[in-house]
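Person: I keep going back and forth on a fold encoding question. Show me how you would write down a chain together with its backbone fold. Please set it down just below, with no commentary around it:
Helper:
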Amino acid sequence: MLVPPNNILRSPLASSLRFIMSMTKSVARGPVSATIEAKLTAAFSPTHLEVRNESQMHNVPTGSETHFKVVVVSEKFRDARTPISRHRLVNDALKEEVAADGPVHALSIVAMTPEKWRERLDKGEVVGPSPNCKGGDGSLPKKNEVTI
């Protein structure tokens, strides 16, 4: 049996992959997640893409697809020098989903060039989950009030 060296198992990439796998096990991929992934792939041809459904961290019914974090690494961000300009590009690619009548209520964006992503991984920095919800405005049904 082949066993990878310990330094590979402790690498930032391995840590990031373990986190991603834990997130994908906890939340099934639905149609909104698939649409976001398809649109970001078409718009940016990313070298790395994560679409995380973080709805389970909020006061929404189980199975919801309303709160997302995306991590997009693409050469196309090279000309977008500031975080806000990269965020605008991502928001524009997902304009139907993030519109007032769209399915996405919240979108957290991490968008960077491959070089910046590599620097981040080399430092052992991973993109963690967003903070847990502090309660919301009460306009959505509570988790235990609606079943899907």
Observations:
- The domain at 29-122 is CATH 3.30.300.90 (GMP Synthetase; Chain A, domain 3).
- Confidence is low (pLDDT under 50) at residues 17-27.
